[in-house]
Sequence to fold (116 residues):
Amino acid sequence: MDSDSNGIRDDIDLFIKNENLTPVQVKALNQMAASLQEQVSVDIDDGNAITIAAENGTRALNCVVKTFQDFSLTKKYSKTLQAYTANTYERTQNYLRYNHKLDGTVSSLPTENTCL
Fold:
């Protein structure tokens, strides 16, 4: 459920809000959470949508890396948000199908500021 229609499930919103983070860090994690939600719910038969979801994911990860500037925190939050996002069998299967569609593709980290 996403009661405020921000693209992030309420349980994930609550997790982020309960962390001791700066407003900029919260914004970066919100961007990542929305991106992960997009990846879990993308139409797996729509190649363009998959490409857009992947680009959004790369931009969100880049934002988190630049915002936290600490690999251990980046890893902690990205793994935690992935776990929360794919916390049911159906969501996990969707996330695996999405990632399978990206097998063999290459992406590069953007050099510009990718935070929304």
